[in-house]
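FORM 7B - TANDEM STRUCTURE REPORT

SECTION 1: FIRST PROTEIN
SEQUENCE AND TOKENS:
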Amino acid sequence: MRFFIALEIPEYSQKQLQVVQSEIKKLAPEARLTDPEKLHLTIAFVGEQADKMQSSLVEVIKKSVQDIPPFEVTPAYLDGFPNLHHPHTIWVGVKGDIDKLFVVRERVKDGLVDLGLEVDERRYIPHIAVAKLNSNYHLNEVQEGEFQKMMMEEFEPIQIDAIKLFESIPEEGFHRHNTLAEVPLVHSESKKADLR
């Protein structure tokens, strides 16, 4: 199974991001847009592992969200990998309670290391991939300026109340995502109630 751990993007945010995607397509017709239903914010890509690893990965997620209450992140800016001038991936960055996101990410990484799995050591940038371009594609200055203007409007915050374990299934040159497990974040008030 090809596993990854991520936050799902709710339908209301998908619709807002679709507006950005349609603007990207107008400016860069060659862009291949991410299917709105597959939009997500990756915490860790685990990769190909034995099916039996699923339960261990769920435990890693459970430990990583201990004491983390539900939080919000808000789509805020557009950028690209490796950069916006020469992007093979165009993505939307987020602002808000990203400190909680970094805590969860570090705990997940530690849990994966404990399982003997390799982890990506590159600097973590919370992002939602919205489009892909050929690796030799270059944006000109006008396109770059227009891309940056796209994120001027206010976006609805995304409510994060669960972390999910997904399976990525190759399908006709694309990948279908299947939710394997959902680990809820617990409100601190309900935790206190449980302790009484």
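SECTION 2: SECOND PROTEIN
SEQUENCE AND TOKENS:
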Amino acid sequence: MNREYFDPRPTEYPFPKDTCAHYLVVKKDNGTVFDKDYPYVDRSRRMRFKQAVMRFLLYFIAFPVASVRMGLRVKGRKNLKIHKKELQNGFVSCCNHVHLWDFICVMCALRPVKPYLLAWAKNVRGENGALMRMVRAIPIPENDPHALSAINSALSGLFAEHQALHIYAEGSMWEYYRPVRPFKTGMAYIACKNKVPVLPMAFSYRRPGFIRRRIFRQKALFTLTLGEPQFADTALGREEMRVELTRRCHGEVCRLAGFGEGENIYPPVYDGSRRIDYYPIEIAEK
């Protein structure tokens, strides 16, 4: 078995039928309303101070702890230097969403870039909401066109300042899941609208050693691989351009995660896609 592409095959998590659905239970709801007046990008002095303190804690505590606890290896960081010119005016990054701590790994890999994060609104209202805001999480409003207009304006402002935004295009977190689930096209919509590239990244797994498996009961070690920026094909129509970029980015994430062409079991674009319970054993044993 190739240790670089190990499949933990988790069975204890209640993965939903819908590939973009959540299964985590958020116990708290602080009642925050994400409407047109909500500060999606909070520039207050108080919040900037909190974010600066959090950044210090990330560098000196969270990054080292996550690296040890998750056995994190980062590959492809050279792409940040090679493509510095293409990325310097802002970009969207994306990857598969496979662990509660994986955004810590993303921040660690992208440093010194400080990405913002598009986040599930329920999480930002929940018990970890304050921490999420301190790591620059931006809640996605639901069922409110005026709020959607407000968040789009806030995101355009970020890219005007040459910032980075991380998006989990699968739509939800499924722990230790090996296949790359279909991507929603919202990520490509944001990149196309703001004329910024998408930087694909991918988590893959390595088989833990004896001590980690037997004593610490660790399911897998994590590798995060950074790819090359992907640009929208501006010769296409608006909708076709968005779908084509989504397909291309999904293909890149699959490749970076260790899947050969045609090996990933899901289609690239979300269309109400349903969970596949069993997949070819040869993929798991790569």
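SECTION 3: OBSERVATIONS ON SECOND PROTEIN
Strands lie at 73-75, 91-94, 116-120, 137-140, 164-167, 198-206, 221-226.
The chain is about 40% helix and 10% strand.

SECTION 4: SIGNATURE
Preparer initials: ____
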